[in-house]
Amino acid sequence: METKPPLSPFTRETAKTQVQAAEDAWNTRDPKRVALAYTEDSQWRNRAEFLSGR
């Protein structure tokens, strides 16, 4: 995957914050809010399926 500078600082705390935001969005069960928790170039894997994007 290619990086696009400038990247924000990535620390253990920022990672935890991002994961918590995604989890909170999923828990709302609102598809629009869930999608906003991920970047447009996210890569997803569901068993044998591979998807990309929101």
Q: Which residue ranges are poorly predicted, with pLDDT under 50 across at least 5 consecutive positions?
A: none
What is the approximate shape?
Answer: globular
Helical amount: 40-55%
Radius of gyration: 13 Å
The run of helices and strands is HHEE
In what order do the strands lie side by side in the largest sheet? 1-2
Total separate domains: 1
Note the total helix count.
Answer: 2
The fraction of residues assigned to DSSP E strands is 5-15%
Termini separation: 17 Å
Write down the overall mean pLDDT: 82
| Sheet of most strands | 2 strands, antiparallel
Number of E-state strands: 2
Sheet/helix structural class = alpha+beta
How would you characterize this protein structure?
- With 54 residues, the chain is α+β, with helices and mostly antiparallel strands.
- The chain has one domain.
- It contains two helices and two strands.
- The chain has helices spanning 12-28, 31-36; strands spanning 43-46, 49-52.
- A two-stranded antiparallel ribbon has the order 1-2.
- Strand 1 (43-46) and strand 2 (49-52) form a beta hairpin.
